[in-house]
Automatic annotation (TrEMBL):
Protein name as it appears in the record: VOC domain-containing protein
Pfam families found in the cross-reference section: Glyoxalase
Domain VOC: 4-137
PROSITE patterns per record: VOC (PS51819)
Top-level taxon: Bacteria
Annotated source species: Pikeienuella piscinae
Length: 138
């Protein structure tokens, strides 16, 4: 299966303080988040979400998000990507990955296109409980 790292999403208790570390101390540039029309519940205020694009496209790179206990329930998901952080893998055939997960009996949350324009994503936990986003461009 062909894949690449799309982004790393870190939980941040104080998004603006942490964003300042990445900009002022590490010299990274903060970008602007663009939401799709089909946006789900995603708190997009600067104190809740920050983006540091890596230059490949506008949403690859580092994401910071404030923890939100209700995020999964508000988006009808089994998994909460705002708690504990996650990394995202981009694949060319998300349906094939979902078939493999179904065959293995591994539960996942199909979020559709809801956070990043043109990106369909699912969430799954690995055997150690690490949350993984798997996405595909649509």
């Amino acid at each position: 299966m062909s894949w690449s790292i799309h982004h790393v999403n870190l939980e941040s208790r104080d998004v603006r303080r942490t964003a300042a570390f990445y900009t002022r101390v590490l010299g990274m540039a903060e970008g602007a988040w663009t939401f799709p029309e089909s946006r789900g519940y995603i708190p997009g205020a600067p104190d809740k979400l920050a983006l540091f694009p890596d230059g490949r496209d506008s949403h690859t790179g580092l994401h910071l998000i404030a923890p939100d206990e209700d995020f999964a329930a508000r988006n009808n998901l089994k998994h909460n990507p705002s708690l504990g952080g996650h990394f995202a893998i981009e694949v060319k055939d998300l349906k094939a990955v979902m078939k493999r997960l179904d065959a293995a009996g591994v539960p996942y949350s199909d979020a559709g296109v809801f956070a990043i324009p043109g990106l369909w994503n699912i969430y799954v936990e690995d055997p150690d409980g690490n949350l993984v986003e798997i996405n595909q461009r649509v």
